[in-house]
Amino acid sequence: MTAPTVTRSATRWRKCPACGAFLYDKRLARDHYVCSECKHHLRLSLSERMALLFDDGSVELRGADIGPRDVLGFVDSLPYPTRLERAQRKTGQRDAARYGTAAVDGRRLVFAVLDFAFMGGSMGAAVGEAVTRAAELALAERLPLLLVTASGGARMQEGAISLMQMAKTSQALARLHEAGVLVVCLVTDPTFGGVSASFATLGDVLVAEPGCRMGFAGPTVIAQTIAQELPPGFQTAEFLLEHGMLDLVEPREGLRARLAALLDLTEHPVTTWLPQPTGPRPIVDPSAATDVAPSEVLALARHRERPTTLDYVAAVFDDFVELHGDRIGADDPAIVGGLARLGDVRLVVVGHQKGHSTTDLVARNFGMPQPEGYRKARRLFRLAAKLGLPVVTLIDTPGAYPGVAAEEHGQSVAIAEAIMELSRLPVPVVAVVTGEGGSGGALALGVADRVLVLEHGFYSVISPEGCSTILWHDASKAVEAAAALRLTAPDLLRLGVVDGIVPEPAGGAHCDPGEAAANVQTAIIEALGALLPETSADLVARRYRRFRAFGTAAQPLLEGRPHELSDPVRP
Predict the structure, then answer these.
(1) Of 127, 170, 294, 551, which is the most exposed, with the fewest CB atoms less than 10 Å away?
(2) How far is the CA of 311 from the CAs of 317, 485, 502, in angstroms?
(3) Would you list the DSSP string of 268-284?
(4) CATH architecture of 294-450+463-489+512-545
(5) What is the average pLDDT score of the chain?
(6) Looking at 193-197, 312-316, 327-331, 555-559, which range is the least confident one?
(7) Is the pLDDT reported for residue 553 higher than 90?
(8) What fold is seen in the domain 44-266?
């Protein structure tokens, strides 16, 4: 069954509801109903939405038998059946949602789309049924599910039956999560109430159009309840992205391409082909490792021009799509992550992000994550486990941020849960220490099947400055403390903390970022090539044994190389 067509007004000009500009209708249609002056995204009908997102001729609608029922005999200023009849005449739809199958750049999926023009897209039994059937179809055919939302919330005319649709749709999506089927939610303006508090926010990836509004309670209700002025942009897509509730805000013109990229990066390829390595293999024999002076290591690992995670991601991987937010309260820029591809292998990349300029360093908190950053990382680890995607982490942090707000928001819990999540992931995990590996803030991304370190990187229980301050009450002894901590790459390899040392260009990674990235890529390719054939059970069991061995008789000991240090001052 093909989608019905709703004809737009024959008026040649219309006024933008946001800025008041007069817009020529034909141009507006060509621009996907986005104002050319202020970029306000006008609402689309159901048929226009499907035409925007899906390949021509690919839509097959289902659920023609789904329709509303007046189970309560509800009457306000009009009987409910009268309101339904008017909405049906206005939209050409039986109710506010339709579902079916379609294709995006040739990739099939199941979809359910809400139409705000039908009684504000409110969710009654018919909407809940359409969304639930879409989820059941996606599960049966193991196809990705796309949910497009636009709703004022629950349909009051159906009372508690409407309320039950929140549970009905949520449990349907839970089965998809359990089965490893991708769910993408596209949030459009507006999405409120029972829809926002159920299926609209339960996707693996949440994408929103610019300026769209989403929340549980509407802004008027909130302002009247708390008697406070609401912050600028409250409940808009941009506000929600900043507060960790969305992965992406994508202009309408780029939605189909973005959706196609997400579908590509989460599908299981026919092969696990990896590119041919171009750099030298990592050093895995401790006797072949060249010792580097701790003072040099500290300087080079912290060099401002040293490549960051995003630098490596751009050079090592293809088609990276960054995902944002912890779904609780913030998007911590000190940790970045998302979906990427290396050859045919789709994977999840997560790493600490610093910056090169002072502005970037401050914005990224010098690579020191807050709890929200570790919760974002954990969310991405879970996405990788659900979809069967390998994980690559890039570690470069002085440590987790030691601040009051971080403690109030559960820094210890966030780190502990990230460590635990990584330790049991049923997919290959490769970690690369690209610069500083500071304390538990680094280990939260470091519980891996293969742990590698760049030649001038380091990994330590504490920063050298922190160690010297605590034990010698003198921060100036940081270099001596670094030597005592045995935190350099060769010592880490001898201890078995890392599995290999990634060579750097002469003078350090910042002297030739391209060569450094090629070497990192080679190390990752080699590690993934060995790990991808392994079963999930073997990966988890071997990872357990790896970390179980530290501190036992199986742990190698470093032969004492004397360090000329004064005795610590005992507290």
Answers:
(1) 551
(2) 10, 29, 16
(3) PPS----PPP-SPPPB-
(4) Alpha-Beta Complex (3.90)
(5) 93
(6) 555-559
(7) no
(8) 2-enoyl-CoA Hydratase; Chain A, domain 1 (3.90.226)
